[in-house]
Amino acid sequence: MARILTSSDCSLCVEFGNAISEEINKQVRSFTVAVEAAQIEGITELVPTYRSVTVHYRPEIIGYARLYEKLNNILNDLTAAEIPPAGEIRVPVLYGGSHGPDLENVAKLHDMTPEEVIKIHTAPVYLNYMLGFLPGFCYLGGLDERIHTPRLTTPRVSIPAGSVGIAGSQTGIYPLTSPGGWQLIGQTPLRLYDPKREKAILVDAGMTMKFYPIDEEEYERIRRENYPEEYTQEGGQKA
Amino acid sequence: MISFRKKGLLTTVQDFGRIGYQRYGMPVCGAMDHFAMALANLLVGNPRGEAVVEATVLGPTIVFDEPEIFAVTGGDFGPTLNGEPIENSRAYRAEAGDTLALPMAKSGARAYIAFAGGLDLEEVMGSRSTFLKGGIGGLDGKPIQDGSVIGLRAPIDDIWDLEERFVPQELLPKYGDEVEVRFTYGPQDDLFSPAGKRTFTTSEYALSDKSDRMGFRMDGPAVERAAGSDGNIISDGICFGAIQVTNSQPIVMMADRQTTGGYPKLGCVIAADLPLLAQLKAGDKVRFRPVSAATAQAVYRRQQKILDKLEKRLALPEPEPEPLCGRFLIRVNGVEYDIYLEEQYDA
To answer: Which domains does chain B have, with CATH numbers?
Structure first.
């Protein structure tokens, strides 16, 4: 059962459980969509995560008690709410070489060929549970256990934007250049995060993601053309 | 246009921050002391959340190349205009060629300079706030440098009632180097032991020098976890003022905080007291006192009322309504009436 917790005097945290699971995350998304649809005056933003939604609001417009009640009512009606599909993004990746300097090592570590790692990595449809850590950084679920790989012992000082990596049971994409300890297996030419673009961040919480391999030529073409919207299939609504 | 002859220690452009993008992992950023920012803006006739210049401990020196109304609020940096001391929390007119200096914080740690009509900078994702780590917003996503130049969007060199544009002392927060701030418990206060909570609410903490716009590290007694907690949670959202406990040490998450995190949060500093915290310098002392969310909101609304009143006082006077008088010809059911209307004064 969901709990409504105080996370500050300007926000409530609606928590749906204490685990990383698709079932819980689905409730997170349903609730997010339902609160958006309710258009409650005073709410400024919603932050869905693995297992909770932080509801930010302006207490000079709506007080704690009244918002609590409204959210509680939404929770009670939640099971009935139909939610539209969240959409999917297809992410082209140039695996290995200078774009994925750790691919060989990851393959060696698991006693397989780089091609096998690529095959395993591109097979699943990953669920983007949430975004956080960096603008546009997706917390993806669904990495095949066979390629779970520990982080580098010495993190890199600078990882280029678009790098696709593995850290433990997680796989993900660095949306902007930053330091980090992930094992880098490839790079996407898609700009998932571009602050100057109207839709600055392409992926929303609840969307699914699929990787597919490309060659150097296609990498350059996609990078040059820069039509990232082509790779997303919108769901009916955000969230 | 204004140019920065001296950049100061850390001078950035800030407003209310990027609202609505936390779900995409984008930090909010914005002014550390929202109240001081709002005051500065209201004094010069701007909306409360217009972009301002935030100075930190050592302030900038700014030269105006055109006349402009401005105001300095927040910490007392001993501001001068052409070398003459000026008051904090009062609007002034600068002439072309005038130099505004904010030498050094005598009280507080952050000062705000608002410019009438705002700064001519592009909005990125709905805000002009500088996001230092992401390199966006403000002036090229970076702190102000020596020689930086910013245009004025709609400079105003004359404003209604300039002499009246000040904030009375009694309405200003008392910044100190020893403060008490209030907080609400949650969302993970159940992951701390009763003894740990007692430690937190009865001890004095000092602001660590490893603090920045992202987080204020608190040096002081460790906060004990509840039995069964390993000090981690499944990542969830982080609010402005959230008291996150990392390796038993509290860190208050500030304006540039990341949007989500995996450490438990004991509580959150109330919005009305965040300005007091934001004005602390390394080594300053702070105590934390728990209050209910209802109390916190009442205090916050009272603080907002100060801004509402100030806004009303500084608003342009309403123009006198046109007196209703004249001669009207009205046709009703084919009959024409000639009516004279005249305003009457009560005796």
So the answer is: 2-170 (no CATH), 178-297 (2.40.100.10)
